[in-house]
Write a structure and sequence with these properties.
By secondary structure, the protein is of the alpha+beta class. It is built from seven helices and nine strands. Strands 1, 2, 3, 4, 5, 6, 7, 8 and 9 form a nine-stranded antiparallel sheet that branches.
């Protein structure tokens, strides 16, 4: 397999990457981010879109992503494939469009490259209901995890407000520099907490994939700040 390591995703989002190991080890105990001690650095390898395994993973995930419920349309032309360290699964992430699907909407599918079979999937619908709020609905393996109301106002970028929503202000600043708005960053961060709690790790993988879907491989430098 020809792959290229783009960035190392650590510290602020490391808890989510550490939790992602539960995809392969469902008996692992997953602590909340506040309970996590500082983990060792974990690499996430971004596969080039021309890599055979990446192409095969996208092909395997395409039937699922082309048939998403709730009016979602997957941007498969810009699908991103990653492989967190310590797993043998590939994660395919795409941005979503459709009625009431605003920026920050994404889906992710876990693919076993050995069999070509898909296992877990997450779908996130972000609807900007006003300039100050987004309604974010998460589905895990087709089951609704509920809707969260996320403050996406300009004031949300304030360090205190961001921290209250579970976002590291330093990460937000870095994502902003890459052209990812505070609103989108806060939306995805909000789904991380929901999905990680609901799926004991599965959603945590797609949490990172969500950032990759909107920011590409370069987003890794933000998650390692």
């Amino acid at each position: 397999m020809s792959v290229q390591t783009k960035r190392t995703l650590t510290t602020s989002m490391a808890a989510f990457l550490v939790a992602s190991v539960a995809v392969l080890n469902p008996t692992a105990t997953i602590a909340t981010p506040k309970e996590q001690s500082a983990p060792a650095a974990a690499d996430t390898v971004m596969l080039e879109s021309s890599d055979t395994e990446a192409e095969e993973a996208i092909e395997a995930a395409s039937p699922v992503l082309n048939d998403l419920p709730h009016g979602a349309v997957a941007d498969l032309d810009n699908a991103q494939v990653s492989q967190p360290e310590g797993t043998d699964k590939l994660m395919v992430a795409v941005q979503l469009s459709g009625e009431d699907y605003d920026k920050g909407s994404f889906a992710g599918v876990v693919v076993n490259p050995e069999t070509g079979k898909t296992s877990n999937q997450v779908q996130v619908k972000a609807t900007q209901s006003s300039d100050a709020e987004a309604q974010v609905t998460t589905w895990v393996n087709g089951d609704s995890q509920g809707t969260k109301h996320v403050n996406t106002s300009a004031e949300a970028s304030d360090a205190q407000a961001a921290s209250l929503q579970g976002a590291d202000p330093n990460v937000l600043d870095c994502l902003n520099a890459l052209g990812i708005t505070t609103a989108v960053a806060l939306i995805i961060i909000s789904t991380c907490a929901t999905a990680c709690a609901a799926t004991v790790g599965v959603g945590c993988v797609v949490c990172v994939a969500g950032f990759t879907a909107v920011g590409g491989a370069s987003v890794g430098k933000c998650l390692s700040t």
